[in-house]
Amino acid sequence: xxxxxxxxxxxxxxxxxxxxxxxxxxxxxxxxxxxxxxxxxxxxxxxxxxxxxxxxxxxxxxxxxxxxxxxxxxxxxxxxxxxxxxxxxxxxxxxxxxxxxxxxxxxxxxxxxxxxxxxxxxxxxxxxxxxxxxxxxxxxxxxxxxxxxxxxxxxxxxxxxxxxxxxxxxxxxxxxxxxxxxxxxxxxxxxxxxxxxxxxxxxxxxxxxxxxxxxxxxxxxxxxxxxxxxxxxxxxxxxxxxxxxxxxxxxxxxxxxxxxxxxxxxxxxxxxxxxxxxxxxxxxxxxxxxxxxxxxxxxxxxxxxxxxxxxxxxxxxxxxxxxxxxxxxxxxxxxxxxxxxxxxxxxxxxxxxxxxxxxxxxxxxxxxxxxxxxxxxxxxxxxxxxxxxxxxxxxxxxxxxxxxxxxxxxxxxxxxxxxxxxxxxxxxxxxxxxxxxxxxxxxxxxxxxxxxxxxxxxxxxxxxxxxxxxxxxxxxxxxxxxxxxxxxxxxxxxxxxxxxxxxxxxxxxxxxxxxxxxxxxxxxxxxxxxxx
Length: 532
Prior knowledge:
Helix content: 40-55%
Strand content: 15-25%
Number of helices: 15
Distance between the termini: 20 Å
Radius of gyration: 34 Å
Mean pLDDT: 83
Low-confidence stretches: none
Largest sheet: 4 strands, antiparallel
Shape: elongated
Structural class: alpha+beta
């Protein structure tokens, strides 16, 4: 058991050397790390509580979700009754009091209208309810009312999509290890370590990024448009940068192409070197855009973002090829943010910032300093105890602890793991318990010597018999750490990551590495007695 082949020695030392080398960049300045080869630029990420950063609590309005669902249902009802055979004529649709109501012009078609509308409603999750109730009142009026279960299901679905969209947008910013999680039914917590500008984060996450292209209604009366009135089939939208000076414009309700058909968006520069956003459509969107622009040459179309018109240029020629540009008095930063928002998709619901907090790096620096002091004291105390108790073998254990500390940092850097304040606690705890395995082994060696075994046999049996207990004990620790990692979040997760890495590395260094050192000493000196 104390014989190690050259391959075995290499297999033990090589991962330790790699782990120690990967820990080095975490202690170097950014400029120095940037000069290292790519595979050496692995560093431990610091969490929000250590590196400082931005904390936002976003809240979605359930009323907006309900309103959006009602608007979508109105469009579906119009389409279904207009395009069905036979066509069913209806009066104006009212959306007062959070429900849709309209009159069927021919009372004989009321039942047929209900039959067509009912399939538009769906089951609300596992509740057994529909998301909309459809009923007939006054023999010719149909009322469509959203159910509470349907609204709850829609809010839940919207929050899941919103969380994923936020995650994509923050990833596009190049930040590392953000924390994004739902809180309650309609809130999302966003924490971005290292970002000291919460305004940029708010600007990015505050955009719904709903992009639409619509034709401008050139038949609208300017005086009526200025008063907020548009012809049938059109609507009046805000146009802050309207060259005519009127901050509104009338556009057709029908959408030419929407952001759903986008495949890419990048920040670029226009002919006058102004910041713009270059966009590219998928095949379907490109065909629709080319067809509409071919049929409307010399007519203006509006580029609409989140219900506001950014610009309304003329179609000078058919726009083919599936690409276009968005201009609208952008700065480079705002154009880049819009490109990120468009690439990551639109938010299904508008989010409002209800809590904003910036964590300064000063608090993190104090925490790091306190953690380093605690770590140094722990290492010195443990090293002194081991040396006094076990002599030479205590030194082997101390060397293993020092290497273990470096390897933990190296593994965290390679995995891109984040060190948080609880993670420092886990780090110190790992140092304190790292020598437990060596204590078990050395006490077993003492016991074997008292039984009269020789030096070599005592060491062999000590490692062999204690190793089983050590592995079993650490397996139970690893199970607990794995559960914390799977079910925990934020600080609990940070603690679990450090704990799991520490368990794996400490077992390797305390058992395998110290056994290698002990074997080398025995083979070199062939002692007849050991002081342990």
